[in-house]
Specification:
mainly alpha, 4 strands, elongated
Length: about 190
């Protein structure tokens, strides 16, 4: 029994040091090499930090692009989804309410045209991006409220649009905060 106890204690001590000291320091060091130095990439407007590139924000005014709905109201400290399946009556009622709200604010759009990412929540509740289609469908509303041409707003979307990773992994997407900052700057 003693012959197993001492090696077990030594192994436990080594693993504690490895897993609670060395590994976290290694990950923190690698994070410092990443864009933003491990603190996230901040986005600024008029010299003032207005948010982070990878954390969604809530926009409800008609003059802004709306992002993906959040189950946690975009609280980065409590990220998570609703965990409700597509057959859950509460989930379906929430999606229907978001569709109805969208249609009220975008009267030229038909229900069938609304992209799913504008009415369904992301798994993290913090998704900063929407599909290009979700951005383009909001253009008539924003152009009307801002008294700008739709063509001009489509050009802003084209400038902000991000291609798939390595050209083929994932869909094209648009960062909502970047898009709204660009709208305010022009």
């Amino acid at each position: 029994m003693k012959s197993y106890l001492l090696p077990s204690l030594k192994l436990t001590a080594v693993l504690i040091i490895l897993c609670t000291v060395i590994y976290p320091l290694l990950i923190a060091g690698v994070a410092k090499l990443a864009p933003g130095g491990g603190d996230g990439i901040t986005l600024s407007s008029n010299g003032k930090v207005v948010g982070y590139e990878n954390i969604g924000q809530k926009f409800t005014q008609d003059k802004y692009f709306w992002g993906r709905p959040s189950a946690v109201d975009y609280n980065a400290a409590a990220s998570g989804g609703s965990n409700k399946g597509p057959s859950n009556p509460e989930y379906l009622a929430g999606v229907k309410a978001r569709i109805d709200t969208f249609l009220v604010h975008n009267p030229t759009i038909k229900k069938e045209q609304i992209p799913a990412d504008l009415v369904t929540m992301s798994g993290s509740g913090l998704d900063p991006d929407i599909s290009v289609q979700a951005a383009k469908i909001q253009v008539p509303r924003i152009a009307k409220v801002r008294n700008r041409s739709e063509k001009e707003i489509y050009q802003i979307i084209a400038q902000i649009k991000e291609s798939p990773l390595l050209g083929f992994l994932g869909p094209e997407k648009v960062n909502v905060l970047k898009l709204n900052i660009a709208l305010n700057q022009k």
